[in-house]
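Usage

Read records sequentially. Each one opens with the input sequence:
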Amino acid sequence: MSKEEKLAEDAKGTTINYVIDWGKSPLPPMLLATFVTALHARPFQPLPMLFPPVFLFSTYLNLSEFKTDSAGITAAWSGLYLLLANRRRVSGNGMRARLGSRFNVRGMTRGAAMGLAGINLIGCGAAYGFGKREKREESP
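and closes with the structure output:
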């Protein structure tokens, strides 16, 4: 194997590397906070609105170089949000009413929020599980 082929192979990331990179990014908790706020701000629902401040704090931690800790917080709270959002049952008398409530703008936003929460649960959980904490020197 030549040197160029070896470098090309090293540059290719495995699936787990992509998942861990997703978990270490500050974007996923910010997106999920945006979706949760869009869904639950009007009409105001107090329990789901506890999640956006935690996701924003997780983004702040990530930008403050605490990537592994941020990934753990995001994974845990994304899982909790996924459990909370999955409890909702679609009401309606017929199949048309149920499909109509799933494929309107609010239903698609809810689906995007739940999908993103699931992806965050996997990606951030992997980043937390495989992550290493660096020792920080304390300032005198």
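Summary fields computed downstream for this record:
- The helical segments are 3-11, 15-23, 27-40, 51-63, 67-86, 95-102, 105-130.
- The chain has a mean pLDDT of 87.
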